[in-house]
Amino acid sequence: MDKSNTQKLKIALNVRLPQDGTVPEWVELIPVGDVVVGRDRRRWINPTPEEVVEAFQKNGADLPIDWEHASEHKAPKGEPAPAAGWIKAMEIRDGAIWGRTEWTDDGADDVKNKRYRYLSPVFFYTKQDRRIISITSAGLTNQPNLYLTALNRQTTQNEETNMELLKALCRLLGLAEDTTEGKVVEAVTALKGDLATAKNRAETPSLEKFVPRGDYDAAQVRATNAEQKLKDQDAKTLGDEIDTAINQALTDGKITPASKDYHTAQCRTEGGLDRFKEFAKAAPAMVKDSELKDKDLNQNKGSLTTEDKAVCRQLGIPEDDYLKTKKEVK
Fold this sequence. Notes:
Blueprint: E1 8-12, E2 15-16, E3 26-31, E4 33-37, E5 43-46, H1 49-59, E6 63-67, H2 70-73, E7 85-93, E8 96-103, H3 105-112, E9 118-126, E10 132-141, H4 150-173, H5 181-203, H6 213-251, H7 260-267, H8 272-282, H9 289-292, H10 306-315, H11 319-328
Parallel strand pairs: 6-10
Antiparallel strand pairs: 1-9, 2-9, 3-8, 4-5, 6-7, 7-8, 9-10
Helix pairs in contact: 4-5, 6-7, 6-8
């Protein structure tokens, strides 16, 4: 039978035990047929009982008969769920599935003394067509399935809750509310795969778009060092150009040795070298080279010479400012 698109749900019915005080070896577990009706009027189908028997045989283990479905309620919580008996075999007879039972002393005593009057089998069925597919246990009970036993009430609530949860999950996934559970599982699996891929990409980003922090820091250091070297080289080049321009102006007699330091300082300001070159190009020669040879180049730094005054007139510089600068660089 194809169960790929079915959900297995669990339910319990009740079967009356003998009322004459006998302890039966074979007990009726569940009816066979296209319609199986509980006392609460819910319906299932059991058209292939041989598959139910085959499922028991393939399981290869005895099924427990307990008290009030302790195997379903208490055992999962780690609480005691002793057996009242064990179903050792199954067969189809008289329109029902029957089980050969080996009772424990306590179980046999409760049945013999009529402390329990019903046997309630627990079975799995498919959600899609409510087909009974296997029996998992049975319990001695005194609550016949007339107005929903405790187990049946829990199952009904679980069914409704599961349906609501499934619909909510479909809405979150952008699926139709009637999407089969198999398709929902596929969508969730794909979503988990996408999440794993995204996490992997976050942990190991593409080197085409990102670089390791260590490499980035090293590149920053290299860039800083290169920038500093470039600045040092530019400063040296500027210094060489200023020296060349100043020396040429001295040679051409455009400035005097006494004003050299002043002009050098002015050349180091922004745009100063270009302004000095324009000045030296246009300024007339104030002294000849031969007149400078025997002069003390450091004398008269405390006052302006005739040549200094000529420079002030040429550049439009107040003599006091020129003299102040001359003293500062002395």
